[in-house]
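Sample intake sheet
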Amino acid sequence: QVQVVESGGGLVQPGGSLRLSCAASGSIFSISSLGWYRQAPGKQRELVASTTNPSGVSANYADSVKGRFTISSDNAKNTVYMQMNSLKNEDTDVYYCKVVARTAAWRIWNDYWGQGTKVTVSS
C-alpha cells in the first residue's frame, strides 16, 4: 500500500506565507503525478496545483492561485511541496495531497490521498 502524509498547515495572517509538504511512502513502484487540492465544508474538492513526475515537466495551477503558489517536488524523496505566498482569507481550507502511483509495473495507476492539513488565513 501507499501512505500519503501532509504537513505544514496552520494559522497565518493575510499576506503571509506557508509551505505545505506531502510525503508518499510504502510500496511505490513509480509516481506519475502529485497534486494539491482543497475543500471547504459543503463544497467540492478542487485542484489547487499539480505537477507531473519528474518535477518540472509540467505544472498546473488554479487561476485563483497563479502567481502566488508554487508547486515543486523531490523525486528521490517522493515528496511534493507547495509554497503559498500572499495568502488571502479565501485560501482558508483543508488542503489535501494526491499522489498518482502504482505499486508494480503491471498494476494500474491509483490515486492515493492524504488526510488533509488545515490552512487558516485570518487576522
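Comment: The first strand starts at residue 2 and ends at 7. Residues 88 and 104 are 41 Å apart (CA to CA).
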